[in-house]
Amino acid sequence: WLEQPFPGAVPSLRPLLRRAWPAPLFGLLFLLSSHLFPLEAVREDAFYARPLPARLFYMIPVFFAFRMRFYVAWIAAECGCIAAGFGAYPVAAKARAGGGPTLQCPPPSSPEKAASLEYDYETIRNIDCYGTDFCVRVRDGMRYWNMTVQWWLAQYIYKSAPARSYVLRSAWTMLLSAYWHGLHPGYYLSFLTIPLCLAAEGRLESALRGRLSPGGQKAWDWVHWFLKMRAYDYMCMGFVLLSLADTLRYWASIYFCIHFLALAALGLGLALGGGSPSRRKAASQPTSLAPEKLREE
């Protein structure tokens, strides 16, 4: 952006409109879901008189409203950057969110050549809404959420963590991420549940998924996706309730189900000889449940 020799050749209006179009829908969905399922209800004594299925279900629309709110905010922030032409690089530079171009591209020598290039704004992309909702694994969900900050955390916190284990490095990163958000206990309870989920899914996946038939692997991925979403629903409650008492009260009302499920999955994975999770992506493991061409622009 600062070194663009022909800034007038960089498109902004069409990329802005293409990026902005889902925001009104997400905003309406946020208003509707937060009205029908207000967070304050969870802080009332009457809520805990509801049946267990109702208490379990409630975290789903709460996390849905949470996602819609952030989708709107981050899309608006991206649109502000796009309107200024900030973060535009030629597609050939293969820019990454937060990190910028990964390949060197010579600057265009004339306005005509600059106009003939295809540009994208991946550098300032902060949210992949489709990836967040439909990726299979907990670890992939982290990559699609707050993407520029995730890049920074990976480069400057994860890589310098005082441990070599992927799970311990992730725990260190989540601890500092919680501190970055603030001092509310709910942040720490939520963020520090993520490493347990990472360890559980990594061990169980390496122990079982490869032994299944192609049809069995597809069924596994759907179940994995469902449990991933429920894990994020569960962790979101700590993030929005904030206080230690409110978070533990809600989690206790649903019997700390995700914690116990993750511990059971971790134990089963260890018993079956599953390897430790690593940063390396298995070639046979899809990152989402639908074809890449269906992903948002």
TrEMBL record:
Keywords: Acyltransferase, Endoplasmic reticulum, Membrane, Transferase, Transmembrane, Transmembrane helix
Record field: catalytic activity: a 1-acyl-sn-glycero-3-phospho-(1D-myo-inositol) + an acyl-CoA = a 1,2-diacyl-sn-glycero-3-phospho-(1D-myo-inositol) + CoA; (5Z,8Z,11Z,14Z)-eicosatetraenoyl-CoA + 1-hexadecanoyl-sn-glycero-3-phosphocholine = 1-hexadecanoyl-2-(5Z,8Z,11Z,14Z-eicosatetraenoyl)-sn-glycero-3-phosphocholine + CoA; a 1-acyl-sn-glycero-3-phospho-(1D-myo-inositol) + (5Z,8Z,11Z,14Z)-eicosatetraenoyl-CoA = a 1-acyl-2-(5Z,8Z,11Z,14Z-eicosatetraenoyl)-sn-glycero-3-phospho-(1D-myo-inositol) + CoA; 1-octadecanoyl-sn-glycero-3-phospho-(1D-myo-inositol) + (5Z,8Z,11Z,14Z)-eicosatetraenoyl-CoA = 1-octadecanoyl-2-(5Z,8Z,11Z,14Z-eicosatetraenoyl)-sn-glycero-3-phospho-(1D-myo-inositol) + CoA
GO molecular function, one term: acyltransferase activity
GO cellular component annotations of the record: endoplasmic reticulum membrane
Family matches, as InterPro entries: LPLAT_7/PORCN-like (IPR049941), MBOAT_fam (IPR004299)
Stretches that traverse the bilayer: 20-39, 46-66, 72-92, 166-181, 250-272
Keyword Transmembrane helix: yes
Principal place of residence: endoplasmic reticulum
Location in the cell: Endoplasmic reticulum membrane
Residue numbers spanned by region Disordered: 278-297
Biological pathway: Phospholipid metabolism; Lipid metabolism; phospholipid metabolism
Pfam family, one: MBOAT
Membrane topology: Multi-pass membrane protein
Family membership noted in the UniProt record: Belongs to the membrane-bound acyltransferase family.
Protein name: Leukocyte receptor cluster member 4
Protein species of origin: Macaca mulatta
